[in-house]
Write a structure and sequence with these properties.
Blueprint: H1 2-6, E1 17-22, H2 28-37, E2 41-46, H3 51-57, E3 61-64, E4 90-93, H4 95-103, E5 107-123, E6 136-149, E7 155-159, E8 167-170, E9 175-178, H5 190-201, H6 210-225, E10 230-234, H7 238-251, E11 255-261, H8 269-277, E12 286-291, H9 293-300, H10 306-328, E13 333-335, H11 340-345, E14 372-374, H12 382-391, H13 396-399, H14 419-438, E15 447-461, E16 464-477, E17 485-486, H15 491-504, E18 508-513
Parallel strand pairs: 1-2, 1-3, 3-4, 4-9, 10-11, 10-13, 11-12, 13-14, 16-18
Antiparallel strand pairs: 5-6, 5-7, 7-8, 8-9, 15-16, 16-17
The protein binds glutamine (GLN).
Glutamine (GLN) binds at residues 25, 66-70, 94-95, 142-145.
Length: 526
């Protein structure tokens, strides 16, 4: 319910919406993303969502996701049969396919042969689902159960060598069941199949675009905010920057952004944020920069334990923000850069486990005097947030900024944080990023940065003995941020970086490249 109520696009664009019903599968967010890639707006709902609400939304299509359960077991997640009688096209994927068959009179059992991984599937071209798909195409399978008997009125429309019903359909009623996962990229023609469903079967026009999102959101923010005041904590990260851009477009000076420079940002980053959002920038808003460097360094003096550092940095942020908020006085709205994955990962109240609780979902900060939260990016995926950012005229370097931890360089400095160490790691990191960009690797490497080890060792420079710090360079590739591999970067580039750092950054006499994967390491170096 909450999601629908808060949806910033509930009106206007939602007249063409496909909904995903979540049965706890691991690829559910991907399903919604693929639909949006077809320019059709899509939202995810728990299987516990009342059918009355679904009718009221009148979606153009419904997709049932995969899930870990077996639909023939007692207490397995299920849905009312009525869902298939609304006249709305339904596509069931994996568990969703099995459930559709189970509810409509087919049979699902433990499969004699489980399928997992890339599998060749043979499709029937007469099916609308498989229009323009190769006769034999690679799909992604992941199931222990199978459909041993299709429901009355259905026809088999695809099979594999181990799975007699890889897809089935009742075209008259627009009901489609697919055992594999078209949403996973390993299903080579999966996006085309999703497109076949949303356009071919559901008849969506596919007009969902970022410019219409921006336009529509601006309208709705104006309506909601009226002549109220909005306060936003701007971190310089992608989400809060795009939220600032959008709110500024909608309500101009009714928006105040507080940017806390904790002195742990990357080189020149504080000034870059100010250049974009400050008085000489292109956005109409009140911009307050708090230079809290000294405060942070004082709090961090003598602290070496990484968790303690994180806590201090987080708490200090609240204190600084609170002080600024007090100066401004009561506001009507506190804006937050919450995005769709934050909402989904915090749990939709259904089967999908709470992956992590997000500080900006649910819990309301009590240190600012405000009436209501406003979250203008709540319906967007990360890449959509970036598109909206470009649409709003936020510079590319900010929109495509690398993920950067909230506590900033504070945790990329091993041991005690001092102003001197911050300078060293900022300078080294700037050189590293510059050379990576020069080598044309900045778009292909997942994440890269320099960290300052707390190790000092003997060297010789200009015939003189030195006793200086070692910089660690890190570059990793990761698909899911759960695991990562150290990136294979050209040795020559590393050598250039090494010699530039040693020549240009005072206080460094050694440079290491970190080979550690995750696990056992982490992506960060703290
Ligand atoms: N749990 C069901 C099975 O094992 C469905 C799996 C899935 O949806 N990926 O077949």
């Amino acid at each position: 319910m909450g999601i629908l109520k808060n949806s910033s696009i509930e009106k206007g664009l939602s007249n063409e919406k496909v909904i995903v019903i979540d049965f706890g599968g691991q690829y559910n967010q991907l399903v919604a993303r693929r639909v949006r890639e077809c320019n059709v707006y899509c939202e995810i709902y728990s299987y516990k969502t009342d059918i009355a609400l679904i009718k009221q939304m009148a979606p153009k299509g419904i997709i049932l996701t995969g899930g870990p359960n077996s639909c023939y077991e007692q207490n397995a997640p299920t849905y009312k049969k009525e869902l298939f009688e609304l006249g709305i096209p339904v596509l069931g994927l994996c568990y969703g396919a099995q459930l559709m068959m189970h509810i409509l009179g087919g049979k699902v059992e433990k499969a004699p042969v489980k399928e997992y991984g890339k599998t060749e599937v043979d499709v029937n071209h007469e099916s609308l689902m498989f229009k323009n798909i190769s006769q034999k195409t690679t799909c992604w399978m992941s199931h222990n159960d199978y459909i041993s008997q299709i429901a009355p009125g259905f026809q088999i429309s695809a099979h594999t060598s181990d799975c007699p019903v890889a897809a089935a359909e009742c075209a008259d009623k627009k009901l489609y069941a697919i055992q594999f996962h078209p949403e996973v990229l390993h299903t080579v023609e999966g996006t085309k199949m999703i497109d076949n469903f949303v356009r071919g079967v559901c008849g969506c026009a596919g007009t969902w675009r970022m410019d219409s999102f921006v336009e529509e959101s601006v309208k709705q923010i104006r309506e909601k905010v009226g002549d109220g005041k909005v306060l936003l904590a701007l971190s310089g990260g992608v989400d809060s920057s795009v939220a600032a851009g959008l709110l500024s477009r909608a309500i101009g000076k009714q928006l105040t952004c507080v940017f806390v420079d904790h002195g742990l940002l990357r080189k020149n980053e504080g000034d870059e944020v100010e250049a974009v959002f400050g008085p000489s920038g292109d956005f109409d808003l009140n911009f307050i920069r708090v230079n809290a460097q000294e405060r942070y360094y004082a709090k961090l003096a003598g602290v070496t334990e990484p968790e303690t550092k994180r806590k201090i940095i987080g708490e200090e942020f609240i204190r600084v923000f609170e002080e600024e908020a007090k100066k401004i006085g009561a506001v009507d709205f506190l804006a937050q850069g919450t995005i769709y994955p934050d909402v989904v990962e915090s749990g939709l109240g259904g089967e999908s486990a709470v992956i992590k609780s997000h500080h900006n979902v649910g819990g309301l900060p009590d240190y600012v005097d405000f009436k209501e939260i406003i979250e203008p990016l709540r319906d967007l995926f990360k890449d959509e947030v970036r598109k909206a950012g470009l649409e709003l005229g936020i510079p590319e370097r900010l929109v495509y900024r690398q993920p950067f931890p909230g506590p900033g360089l504070g945790i990329r400095i091993i041991g005690e944080v001092t102003a001197e160490k911050v300078r060293i790691v900022q300078d080294a990191d700037a050189i590293y990023r510059e050379e990576i960009a020069k080598a044309g690797l900045d778009k292909s490497i997942g994440q890269y940065f320099a960290a300052l080890t707390n190790m000092r060792s003997v060297g010789v420079m200009g015939d003189e003995r030195t006793y200086d710090y070692a910089i660690a360079l890190r570059a990793v590739n990761t698909v899911d941020f759960m695991t990562a591999e150290s990136a294979e970067v050209p040795f020559e580039m590393l050598q250039t970086v090494m010699s530039r750092i040693i020549n240009e950054v005072r206080g460094v006499n050694r440079v290491f490249y970190d080979l550690t994967s995750k696990p056992p390491g982490t992506i960060e170096f703290e």
